Amino acid sequence: MTTQRTLILLKPDAVQRRLVGEITARFERKGLRLAGLKLVQVSRELAEKHYAVHKGKPFYESLLTFLTSGPTVALVWEGREAVAVCRTLMGMTDGAKSPPGTIRGDFALSVQNNLVHGSDSLENAAIEIALWFKDEELVSFTSTDANWVA
Ligand code: IDP
């Protein structure tokens, strides 16, 4: 059993569209454990660091404008195979192509405004969690239903 931590962002469209509760509930109901949670007005500097891998792509500037356009909710989820589990719950990048039942499939139509970010590997999860959270902002606890969920 591999317990992992992953970074999830509820991007500005999720906050503006009042989908924070709906989306967060999906990760909770799956059995993941919350390890970090905060509302962030993202700076250009943080957005550039977070999306450094996309620098030079045609959508890069627009993506930075999007991520800095309003508050973002940053979450750290913990649990068995958390990185892959969260990516599955999210769906594909393009909301229009994401299957129903996924977050993007149910609530997104756009490629850019696709509501959520999720780390795509365990290595990137560690880097992204360190970028968004200080150590003291993360909490580890044993949930009361751990024996049933794990
Ligand atoms: P992911 O979020 O599904 O992992 P990435 O390829 O890492 O997708 O892209 C990061 C983000 O950049 C996407 O979530 C989306 O907001 C945006 N994006 C990706 N490709 C495009 C595009 O072709 N046009 C506009 N925005 C894009």
Automatic annotation (TrEMBL):
It catalyses: dZDP + ATP = dZTP + ADP; a ribonucleoside 5'-diphosphate + ATP = a ribonucleoside 5'-triphosphate + ADP; a 2'-deoxyribonucleoside 5'-diphosphate + ATP = a 2'-deoxyribonucleoside 5'-triphosphate + ADP. Major role in the synthesis of nucleoside triphosphates other than ATP. The ATP gamma phosphate is transferred to the NDP beta phosphate via a ping-pong mechanism, using a phosphorylated active-site intermediate. (Microbial infection) Catalyzes the phosphorylation of dZDP to dZTP, when the bacterium is infected by a phage that produces the substrate for the synthesis of dZTP (2- amino-2'-deoxyadenosine 5'-triphosphate), which is then used by the phage as a DNA polymerase substrate. One of its GO terms (cellular component) is cytoplasm. The lineage of its organism: Bacteria, Pseudomonadati, Planctomycetota, Planctomycetia, Gemmatales. GO terms for molecular function: ATP binding; metal ion binding; nucleoside diphosphate kinase activity. ATP binds at residues 11, 59, 87, 93, 104, 114. PANTHER family: NUCLEOSIDE DIPHOSPHATE KINASE (PTHR11349). Residues 3-140 form the Nucleoside diphosphate kinase-like domain. It is found in: Cytoplasm. It comes from Gemmata obscuriglobus. Belongs to the NDK family. Homotetramer. Its EC number is 2.7.4.6. The keyword Transferase applies. It comes from the Bacteria. This is Nucleoside diphosphate kinase. HAMAP family: NDP_kinase.
